[in-house]
Amino acid sequence: MSKNLGARAFIVVSTSGITPQTMSTARPAAPILAITGSQRVFNRTSLLWGVAPLLDTRAGKVNPNELAKQLALDLGLTSPGQFVLLIRGFHQDPAMNLPSVTVITITEEDATE
Asked: What fold is seen in the domain 2-112?
């Protein structure tokens, strides 16, 4: 998916670690940035293939689209005119799985904020 869209990164905001774990098994070409407010989830995701965990207390408290844009730019994962993919909604219980993919375009305005 990242190759087809030219996405520079997968951004995952996670409270449990299930979504980055699920993404890791697909071995995507783009890096996976797992943002969490939990030290336990941070430690767990640091062991996953292709996942770079980031401990951030804003995870789950602010708009995930804005957080994804800001962190992707701050970490040098993307630049204006490029895309990142925000992935969320995987759950351990299949009945509660509601995965979604949001394509986020980074604009010049985002880069100057």
From this structure: Pyruvate Kinase; Chain: A, domain 1 (3.40.1380)
